[in-house]
Amino acid sequence: MIIYLDGKYLPREQAVISVFDHGLLYGDGVFEGIRAYHGRVFKLGEHLDRLYEGARAICLEIPVTKDEMQEIVLETLRRNNLRDAYIRLVVTRGVGDLGLDPLKCPRPTVFCIAASIKLYSDELYKKGLEVITVSTRRNIPTACIPRVKSLNYLNNIYAKIEANLVGVPEAIMLNAEGYVAEATGDNIFIVKKGVLITPPTYVGLLEGVTRNTVMNIARGKGIPVEEKVFTLFDVYTADECFLTGTAAEIIPTVKVDGRIIADGQPGVMTWELIEAFRELTKVDGPLIYPGETGAK
Ligand code: PXG
After folding, report:
1. Which residues contact 24 (CB under 8 A, 6 or more apart)?
2. CATH ID of 2-115, from 3.40.50.10240, 2.130.10.10, 3.30.470.10, 3.40.50.1000
3. CA of 291 to the centre of ligand 1 (A)
4. Mutation test of ligand 1: which of 117, 186, 251 has the most ligand atoms closer than 8 Å to its C-beta?
5. Could you report the per-residue pLDDT of 93-140, keeping only the tens digit for each?
6. Taking the CB of residue 194, how many other CB atoms lie within 10 A of it?
7. Global model pTM greater than 0.85
8. Are 1 and 80 in contact, with CB atoms under 8 Å apart?
9. Which of 149, 180, 245, 247 is the least crowded, having the fewest Cβ atoms under 10 Å away?
10. Is residue 149 flagged as an active site residue?
11. By alpha-carbon position, which residue is closest to atom 14 of ligand 1?
């Protein structure tokens, strides 16, 4: 495995960073999880936009341009001979002293890992997921800003631990007011009377690239889409429910807090969106190996 780290492509054993890196000491930094499908990097522009916006919000100046970063992602994939992959792109505040002041960190650390991916099983997509709501609330937008995909994931990890403890793979998190926000690493959608509904970003959530893609696909199909605040009541009484994220793509959710959603089967609209999403992964994004046509 070859990893990009601060200007170099290094074997895995040599791709190491300092114990004084503030990404490690304080979770000070931003990251992206990106997928490559069929020799193309899906929604790469959208992921890079989010990375650079998050960096700007935390006053972190990324030492490479967006174009250079795109090339870093593509070259890391090429060096690892990958066409289908999960890509982790990370920019930390860099090495500083033991104080938390970011001004003491002269140079951000940039690294990119490309690996093959572990997925939810095909069976889980057919059967649908069981999730619970957890007591850990999503970060309030006036504290650790949920729209920044920062290295501070402890709050979501608390939620994941609660899910692990009862043996379900994901957890729904509410915001401080009790409105549905998202899952620990996925956004949430419900379908009610033919309308596709997801919480607006001001509820306090990450504006997922998959979330936006799904809303665009739905609008293109003439499905009414609403960004609307809702509660667990709306989830329990939904006609369909699913989660979206780069890793999970679109995963039907059929049981929430022990309540069976509708008839307990993945919904018709959910499947329609999954199929359209999978088609889009064949044609969207820059080619990793120029001259190829993408989908085999
Ligand atoms: N909400 C949160 C809190 C996330 O971390 C998403 C939504 C979905 O966003 P995208 O852009 O991927 O549609 C995420 C992203 C994992 C893992 O291993 C998942 C994320 C981040 C880090 C790890 O499951 N999800």
Report:
1. 17, 92
2. 3.30.470.10
3. 31
4. 186
5. 999 999 999 999 999 999 999 998 777 899 999 999 999 999 999 999
6. 9
7. yes
8. yes
9. 247
10. yes
11. 185
Q: Indicate the pairing of strand 225-227 with strand 195-198.
A: parallel
Predicted confidence pLDDT, tens digits, the chain (296 residues): 999 999 999 999 999 999 999 999 999 999 999 999 999 999 999 999 999 999 999 999 999 999 999 999 999 999 999 999 999 999 999 999 999 999 999 999 999 999 987 778 999 999 999 999 999 999 999 999 999 999 999 999 999 999 999 999 999 999 999 999 999 999 999 999 999 999 999 999 999 999 999 999 999 999 999 999 999 999 999 999 999 999 999 999 999 999 999 999 999 999 999 999 999 999 999 999 998 865 55
Take atom 21 of ligand 1 and give the residue whose Cα is closest: 185
Ligand 1, CB cutoff 6 Å, lining residues: 33, 156, 182, 185-187, 206, 208-211, 244-247
Give distance in angstroms: CA of 3 to centre of ligand 1: 21
Helix, strand or coil for residue 135?
coil
Instruction: Name the token pair of 294.
Output: 């993408």
Where in the sequence of the chain do the CATH 3.30.470.10 domains occur? 2-115
In this structure, are residues 230 and 185 in contact, taking their beta carbons and an 8 Å threshold?
Answer: no
Q: The tokens of 256 are what?
A: 């929430």
Q: Residue 187 C-alpha to ligand 1 middle, in angstroms? A: 8
In the chain, residues under CATH classification 3.20.10.10 are 122-280
* CATH (one of 3.40.50.1820, 1.10.150.390, 3.20.10.10, 3.40.50.300) for 122-280: 3.20.10.10
